[in-house]
Design brief:
7-stranded mixed β-sheet, alpha+beta, Znf_Sec23_Sec24_sf, 8-stranded mixed β-sheet, protein transport, transport, Znf_Sec23_Sec24, Sec23/sec24 transport family protein, single chain
């Protein structure tokens, strides 16, 4: 569980918080195997016996004062009695007990229900494939699923389904694959004429991977796109016989969730559905009107960037609720360059604990690699995340892909969580007094994460298992707790000196996404601009850098816009500029596809701070040869390239990696760089640490089209995108901020 705060020293009270101009909060990656310094938890059992505070329900931890019969809560100060079992337990040497030896523990909990339920923990995976598509799309999907079959653990069950104007269910447990079809009514109101269970019993549809892998592969080979003739005869005639679309995605998903839900808690504890789409749902329930993409400029009063961000129907949000109740997590893979309205579809994946992937074409898609990577990493499910704080402050907002508990505050449910998924919180003071300057009780944050994992029985001792479950999987329920103490800052300089700019960026990105969804991209940009102006003014005020006596002209020339007195704040103006140049916040007129914007919102909302930094302001490294690094970091400007003598540059933009050889590079340098060189080793290391597979490009300046690389050199680009001015860009942006700060300080 990695936790990073916006500043390691907390503001002393709300006046100090306001004076700093900074957001106050933290990010947490609950299922990360280690903490932010690379240290793992102390493991143990009997998590249900861990003492809890009678007042605030916090868990006992190393910061609590422990007496022979009682303990004092480190969060609220309440004195709690110890049970006789706990008294006996804590009389042993403390280093043998996880919760007294480490502030980061991971304890096993007893499972609810009988032992027999432990044996019914088979992982279930279902692929739902769009047949209203092309041969290329199906070839890509087949190769992705073949990669997925290699990554699935033995004991898993796999189901293959297709959708178009009908739903196809495949039985691969016999000698040849058999498909049963159920036709989808074309209108948006009608339900299916037949339950899927009546077409094919679920346990006939879900095949064991280890015995049926070859037959699943054979069934995939039989998939063909639906022809226009089939669609027209398949009850897809529109008004006056005009051919309508035939992608009955909404009806198919709803039917699949109900189908799987019958065995939830019996055959499986979590089912994952992989939905492969090649375009928008245009048939049956949940069909989407994509004409709004073309008509967004029709009314001059509508902000085009705002018009396409909200969902047009609650259907998919409601469908995500059905998925959760059925124990299903949905990953959506959209392979399309046409407008698919991901703004409406995204809820199906993010609210069920899944991921949303977008690929603009089948040619260079990383779908098979993403699929393999996603299934190969560990994940937890049925998770509950709870953040508690000491009494002087409290969480204000929480951000990330979870759903809040309807009953309890600051309690979040996460359906499925991998080791990359990151959530964020910001804080406010609970009262006007804040933290006491002379108190011995520092601010404390405790994060509790309860989760379930499926463990192959090979990893457990036979004595731990009921006889019926040998060679299968068992469920394990665990409780991970991290308790952290922070210092308070005695003055504003101490806050500034302890800032983590990457966490500040994370909170800003979350806030800006929310504002742009509610009020449009322009509002999001304005919020960011105003925040930087206020922060710069507060910083200049704190360091007494501006003499107010002078006129406005000399005042703006005195303003320190680059935070030269504070290295921790120095990166922020560049990061804000880069965020304004990011497709997340660029205007539609610049050619930002609305689906790509939604995809970035979903991706950036789950990235941990360092990865997000890379996605917003890519890192640019130079090499003198493929085996020798020249300089670890350059600014993203053409000037940086011209002033550097290095012939090779490596750009890491999180989703894209580019190796660029300058036009003046020595022709004897090998291109592309050889597999065993240092540059390749660094590229492979970067790729391994990613949640998605970055696209790798090699470009030779002067020979290949270098546009893809040059687009990332943002510092000469105009911040509003009204033409790429020569050397204005970042410099004129700073001038503009400086003028605004002078106005604000006057």
């Amino acid at each position: 569980m990695a936790v990073r705060a916006t500043a390691s020293r907390f503001p002393i009270d709300s006046d100090a918080l306001e004076a700093s101009g900074l957001p106050w909060g933290l990010t947490v990656t609950p299922f990360a195997a280690k903490d932010e310094t690379g240290i793992g938890p102390a493991y143990g059992s009997n998590g249900h016996l861990l003492p809890r505070c009678e007042n605030c329900y916090a868990y006992f931890n190393t910061y609590c004062e422990l007496d022979q019969w009682a303990w004092t809560c480190s969060l609220c100060g309440t004195l709690n009695g110890l049970s006789s079992d706990a008294i006996a337990r804590y009389s042993y040497p403390h280093d043998s007990i996880p919760e007294t030896s480490s502030s980061f523990v991971d304890l096993e909990l007893p499972l609810d229900g009988s032992e027999e339920e432990m044996t019914q923990a088979r992982p279930v995976y279902v692929a739902a494939i769009d047949l209203s598509s092309s041969e290329e799309f199906l070839e890509l999907t087949k190769s992705a699923l073949l990669a997925a079959l290699e990554a699935l653990s033995p004991g898993s069950l796999f189901g293959l389904a297709t959708f178009s104007h009908k739903i196809g269910l495949y039985d691969v447990q016999g000698p040849i694959p058999v498909v049963k079809n159920v036709f989808i009514p074309p209108d948006a109101e009608s339900k299916l004429p037949l339950e899927l269970e009546d077409a094919m019993p679920l346990l006939q549809f879900l095949a064991p991977v280890e015995t049926c892998k070859d037959r699943i592969a054979a069934a995939l080979e039989t998939l063909r796109p639906i022809t226009s003739w089939e669609r027209s005869s398949g009850a897809a005639q529109g008004i006056d016989g005009v051919l309508m679309g035939g992608r009955g995605f909404g009806t198919a998903m709803e039917a699949l969730f109900n189908y799987l839900g019958s065995e939830f808690g019996n055959t499986f504890a979590l089912a994952r559905v992989f939905a492969f789409m090649s375009g928008p749902p245009d048939y049956g329930r949940g069909q989407l009107d994509t004409s709004r993409y073309g008509e967004q400029y029709a009314s001059k009063r509508v902000d085009a960037d705002r018009a396409l961000l909200p969902e047009q129907t609650p259907f998919y949000k409601d469908l995500a609720t059905i998925a959760v109740q059925s124990g299903v997590c949905v990953d959506v893979f959209a392979v399309t360059n046409e407008y698919t309205d991901l703004a409406s579809l995204k809820f199906l994946s993010i609210e069920s604990g899944g991921s949303l992937f977008l690929y603009s074409s089948t040619d260079d898609s990383t779908l098979p690699q993403d699929m393999f990577r996603m299934l190969n990493r560990p994940y937890a499910f049925n998770c509950v995340l709870r953040l508690r704080t000491s009494t002087e402050f409290k969480p204000l907002h929480s951000y990330g892909h979870f759903f809040p508990d309807p009953q309890y505050e600051n309690l979040q449910h996460i359906i499925c969580c991998d080791s990359y998924a990151t959530y964020a919180y910001d804080f406010e003071f609970a009262n006007n007094t804040g933290f006491s300057r002379h108190s011995r009780e520092p601010p404390v944050v405790q994060i509790a994460f309860q989760y379930t994992v499926v463990v192959p029985t090979e990893g457990l001792q036979n004595s731990e298992l009921p006889s019926s479950s040998r060679g299968k999987h068992v469920l394990q329920r665990r409780l991970r707790i991290r308790t952290m103490q922070f210092e308070t800052a005695q003055n504003i300089n101490e806050i500034y000196d302890s800032v983590d700019h990457e966490v500040v960026l994370s909170l800003l990105v979350h806030k800006v996404i929310l504002v742009s969804l509610e009020d449009g991209v322009r509002e999001g940009r304005a919020l960011l601009h105003d925040w930087l102006v206020i922060l710069t003014a507060q910083y200049n005020d704190a360091y007494n850098l501006v003499q107010y006596k002078n006129g406005n002209k000399s005042m703006s020339s005195q303003i320190d816009i680059t935070f030269s007195q504070c290295p921790q704040l120095e990166p922020l103006p560049r990061l804000v500029f880069a965020l304004l140049r990011n497709p997340l916040l660029r205007f539609h007129e610049e050619g930002v596809h609305p689906d790509y914007r939604i995809y970035l919102q979903c991706l950036f909302s789950v990235l941990e701070p360092s990865s997000l930094h890379c996605g917003i302001y890519p890192s640019l490294t130079s090499y003198s040869t493929p085996d020798k690094q020249a300089y670890p970091r350059h600014s993203l400007s053409r000037a940086a390239l011209l002033t550097s003598d290095s012939p090779i540059f490596f750009l890491d933009a999180y989703t894209t990696l580019i190796v660029f050889y300058t036009s003046t590079a020595d022709p004897s340098l090998p291109f592309p760089p050889p597999q065993d060189c240092l540059l390749r080793k660094n590229i492979n290391m970067v790729k391994q640490g990613r949640s998605i597979t970055p696209k790798l490009m090699f470009i030779r300046g002067g020979k290949d089209d270098a546009t893809a690389f040059e687009n990332y050199l943002i510092e000469e680009q105009d911040v509003d995108g009204s033409g790429f001015a020569s050397a204005k860009g970042f410099v004129s942006f700073l001038d503009d901020i400086s003028q605004s700060v002078a106005e604000y300080m006057k």
